[in-house]
Write a structure and sequence with these properties.
Elements lengths: L1 E4 L2 E6 L3 E2 L29 E6 L4 E9 L5 E4 L18 E6 L5 E4 L3 E2 L4 E5 L2 E6 L6 E2 L5 E2 L14 E6 L4 E9 L5 E4 L11 E2 L4 E6 L5 E5 L6
Antiparallel strand pairs: 1-8, 2-7, 3-9, 4-5, 4-7, 5-6, 10-19, 11-18, 12-17, 13-19, 14-15, 14-18, 15-16
Length: 226
């Protein structure tokens, strides 16, 4: 799958393919054309991948660094050490990619795309997850089991989805709202009307903010044939 990275921040699927006999992608092996990424000996001007630690509610960053021999590698957590051996933790994990380029670049992830259902653990607070499929997932009930999501008529206490617009470099938010009939639906961009036609694009990561006090499992039905 080819992914277009715009200048600045981009959300991308961190874990959505299998590579050989390994279940999880290593950061170092994520892109087959990683040389398209901007590398430097100064991490302030190098491309960066930000993963999310839901337990600590903090980012963990990796930088495209150049060593003394001129070889470019993804360096470990927060730029410490040589080439990282870390992997994405789970299927359905998302990540941010920060591109230092002035124009779009293309990065390619190779491997066997998932075609069966995906279960993602959602913990209280922010979760950076993704649509792990090469097809969009509708926010309307059916594609994703939202039965454990917290819904309310007050958006301040309802679960929230934050998608990312790489063109505007801004979030677009959806809220799990309850109507007067007691039916729970995702309400459209920034709470304006029901999100009847909105979807999570193929390979797009997004933040899920859970108001729950305990973890629950979010099940994504595959939109592609096995």
């Amino acid at each position: 799958m080819k992914l277009t990275m715009k200048p600045g921040f981009n959300m991308l699927p961190g874990q959505f393919v299998t590579v050989g006999d390994e279940d999880l992608i290593k950061i170092a092996d994520m892109f087959t054309d990683a040389d398209n990424a901007k590398a430097d000996r100064n991490m302030e001007v190098a491309d960066r991948i930000d993963t999310w630690d839901a337990a600590s509610q903090m980012y963990v960053s990796y930088y495209r660094m150049t060593n003394r021999q001129g070889t470019s590698k993804w360096w470990g957590k927060d730029g410490a050490g040589e080439e990282t051996t870390d992997s994405f933790e789970d299927y359905g994990a998302g990540a941010f990619y920060y591109s230092q380029s002035d124009s779009d670049i293309t990065l390619t992830v190779s491997g066997q795309v998932k075609s069966d259902a995906t279960e993602i653990e959602i913990v209280p607070g922010f979760n950076l997850i993704c649509n792990p499929y090469p097809a969009p997932l509708s926010l309307a009930d059916g594609a994703i089991d939202w039965s454990s999501a917290t819904a309310d008529r007050n958006m301040e206490v309802a679960d929230r989805i934050d998608t990312w617009d790489a063109t505007t470099q801004m979030y677009v938010s959806y809220y799990r709202m309850t109507n007067r009939q007691g039916t729970s639906k995702w309400w459209g961009k920034d709470g304006a009307g029901e999100a009847t036609t909105d979807s999570i694009p193929a390979g797009q990561a997004f933040f899920y903010y859970s108001q729950a006090t305990t973890p629950f499992t979010l099940t994504l039905a595959s939109p592609v044939a096995e």
